[in-house]
Amino acid sequence: MLELDDLHAGYGGAPVLKGVSLRVQEGEFVAVVGPNGAGKTTLFKTISGTVAARTGRIRFRGEDLSSVPAARRPHLGIAHVPEGRQLFPSLTVMENLEMGATTAAGRRDWAENLARVLDWFPILKERRNQLAGTLSGGQQQMVAVGRGLASSPHLLMLDEPSMGLAPAVAEFIFERLAEIRRQAGLTILLVEQRVAEALDSADRGYVLEAGRIALEGPQETLRRDDRVRQAYLGM
Amino acid sequence: MNAGIEGFLQALNAGLLLGAHYGLMCVGLSLIFGVMRVINFAHGDFMMAGMYVAFHLFALLGLGAVFGSAAGPFIAALLAAPVLFLLGYLAQRLLVSRVTGTRVGALEGEGHYAQLILTLGLSLILQSGGQILFGSVPVSIPSDISSEAWEIDLAGGDVVVFVNQARAWGAAIAVALVALLVLVITRSRLGKSLRAAADNVQAALYMGIDVDRAHRITFGLGIAITAVAGGLLASSYPFTPYVGLEYVIIMYAGVVLGGLGSTVGAFWGGLLIGVIQQCSALLLPTQLQNTAIFVVFLLVVFLRPQGLLGRVSERT
Fold this sequence. Notes:
Distance between the termini of chain A: 34 Å
Oligomer: heterodimer
Distance between the termini of chain B: 56 Å
Strand order of the largest sheet of chain B: 1-2
Shape of chain B: globular
CATH class of chain A: Alpha Beta
Structural class of chain B: mainly alpha
Largest sheet of chain B: 2 strands, antiparallel
Strand content of chain B: under 5%
Order of helices and strands of chain A: EEEHEEHEHHHHHEHEHEEHH
CATH topology of chain A: Rossmann fold
């Protein structure tokens, strides 16, 4: 579904991604883990088009994305749930979800998607008319995930959904993601610093270090790898 | 005693009617600032262009003959809106978009310096261009009712207030347009996407909202709204290509008073400016009217820097 080939990208003069190749198959849950500053967020922004690729290729469902502007990419079926949630603080919870349904598919499935999101995150039902900027961090993350789902995506990209959340809340979010995946059969690409949890939920993983893929494989293999165990799992 | 009350009520009524026009002007400016974070110094000059467009449409289309010389000037003001929308849309597409929206990341000061220079430049071009095209002799749209008034007797005829008919109709149109705009911004999908793009450009892109298009619509709409306000006043006040200078100051004061970026707040800010301006005439010489505006303005900025209706909101 998503193919990256030798992708280079960065800001101004500073390269961040130095030749990343990555595959996500239909229906897969893939995690990209790695330390701070490895380029995980830049990787997502390059896929979404808010950071331009210098060289290399991104293909999504067979289409080359190099000439597709950022605002068009969600309409192809890519939903990006960004780092730090980035809700629209002066819009209500409902309006935020509605903005997720900007795509044609999202508008078509609106009633169904809304019912599912409120079912997965019941607290949002009570908060539906509250301004998103006044929610707690965990609730904001739920809106951010719901907003992504509201576009009826083929691929859901989640950037650090656990960032800044209490462990119990983060656990709840991960548990919901697994549930959403089971029910909706979504393809998910996850970026996380919480390596153990990320590998728990994923089928396959990539370890991104200093802008390069240092390691890749099925999650069991990564969890047994000595380097991963020492550097990320604290064993 | 009655003379004092009469004078006050007269000034209050004149202030409210004029203030509603100012309010509409402020709403146009505030929309652009709220959604795009652009400080548009050329806003008054776009309004001037709108006034001349209304003036010439009135003459060219013979609106006075078709709709009568009472309604004709108002129709001309409303017809100027689509013309100015197009002008604003194109100005955004060709010029302003180079220093705003999704491209400012690479510019110094988030593009604010470049915006300042660009909109000041536009302002000069519009003023000088206006002088070349329209000359500098003051004109106004001829109206039958601009010096007609309804007489309202209060307190059993002891107190008489005159309500200018042109100003009253203009104010009613202004209030209706503000209400319509607020409805569009709060309820429609277009309005919600404009607010989303205002909150967070990057997240709006992740939703698939065409932010550049949203900005073009905003700039066109903001200018069209202010142009209508100018057009509504064009039958009461003679104007020249430099009229923008007088009003842009009033507009900025009104927008800041109401709370930057708040659409409804901008209307109340403009209304308040009108009332202060007219009421201060009771106490101060006419030349000092604008001084009173700025004294109140400074007090508000000093005591309530977020504006009268502004929210102290965090931006993510």
